[in-house]
Design brief:
Order of helices and strands: HHEHEEEHHHEEEEEEHH
Structural class: alpha+beta
Strand content: 5-15%
Protein name: Putative transmembrane protein
Organism: Bacteroides finegoldii
Keywords: Membrane, Transmembrane, Transmembrane helix
Largest sheet: 5 strands, antiparallel
Number of domains: 3
Length: about 300
């Protein structure tokens, strides 16, 4: 009887210990999210604040090409730094699911279909026993962004608003604040049009995944699938304000934190785990027909 009481007491202690560990992990997770969001919001506020100080302490400068160039350079260096800090914080905000982690994902069940960012059925560009190809890009979208950013600049140029005489007739502050938005929209428009094509290739024969660069200065990479991770990114089409559970699935090389590429599939962490498991099975199974859901996926392709 005494032995039984000791056993029950130890069992209760184990339960209490497990509960405390779970609560500790939850607190750590909440603190981690708060820290990441603080960094993101801080980097977002740092750029306009720095711009204000640059303008404020240089308001009596002469309007010359050199002074304007130095002002634009300083403002945009700070912007690039804040952008980099924000991207790193976003990278650290979401969990990473390694495709090499077979034990954790072996019990994950696959869905009958995937959802795109709008909640409709996601369509693969190609899915067969050799390759899966996802083209999360489009010429029409690129041209649209190019025009929407460059048309205002071309209109101002056509109507003679942007001329050396017009700019130099203003004060240094007015000239700088006039040129910065123009410079910004030109860069954003060119980036949207010239960025690498978002084409992700899962090759079953070579057991590799080809990930394009996210920025113009990055090259596409072909990696063994075990070296790739699945993570998340915010979904601007989410139906709820926080977008929780509707985040977009992202694929990335963990060694290149600025190179994550969105797949156009939504569903949050559950969908990310399911997609990771699907890619594992696709690469490892001898026959794709042994994946029950594969035939269903193969019928949902872009025509």
């Amino acid at each position: 009887m005494k032995f039984g009481n000791n056993k029950n007491r130890q069992h209760r202690k184990n339960i209490i210990g497990d509960t405390e560990c779970q609560e500790t992990e939850m607190r750590k997770g909440k603190w981690h999210k708060r820290k990441c969001w603080t960094i993101i919001l801080g980097s977002a506020c740092l750029w306009p604040l720095t711009t204000f100080f640059i303008v404020f302490f240089n308001q009596h400068r002469d309007v010359t090409f050199t002074n304007l160039a130095l002002g634009l350079l300083a403002i945009n260096i700070v912007f690039c730094l804040c952008y980099y800090i924000g991207l790193r914080a976003i990278w650290n905000l979401y969990p990473k699911i390694s495709l090499n982690n077979k034990e954790t994902l072996k019990n994950v069940t696959l869905p009958y279909h995937w959802k795109d960012l709008l909640g409709d059925r996601f369509k693969f560009d190609r899915i067969d026993n050799k390759q899966i190809i996802i083209n999360n890009d489009g010429i029409a979208v690129r041209v649209f962004f190019l025009l929407i950013f460059l048309v205002p600049f071309l209109a101002l140029l056509y109507w003679g608003v942007i001329t050396p005489s017009e700019i130099t007739s203003e004060s240094y502050v007015n000239a700088l604040l006039f040129l910065e938005p123009l410079f910004f929209i030109i860069v954003i428009g060119l980036k949207a049009f010239l960025q690498p094509w978002r084409r992700i290739v899962f090759d079953r024969d070579s057991k590799t995944i080809t990930i394009p660069g996210r920025f113009m200065f990055q090259k596409k990479e072909t990696l063994p699938y075990e070296q790739v991770v699945i993570t998340l990114f915010s979904n601007h089409h989410a139906k709820t304000f926080n977008g929780k559970g509707e985040e977009e699935i992202v694929i990335a090389n963990p060694q290149r934190t600025l190179g994550r590429i969105p797949l156009g599939i939504a569903g949050g962490i559950n969908a990310a785990r399911q997609f990771a498991r699907f890619i594992q099975l696709y690469m490892e199974e001898e026959e794709v027909q042994s994946i029950p859901e594969f035939e269903e996926y193969s019928h949902i392709i872009e025509s």
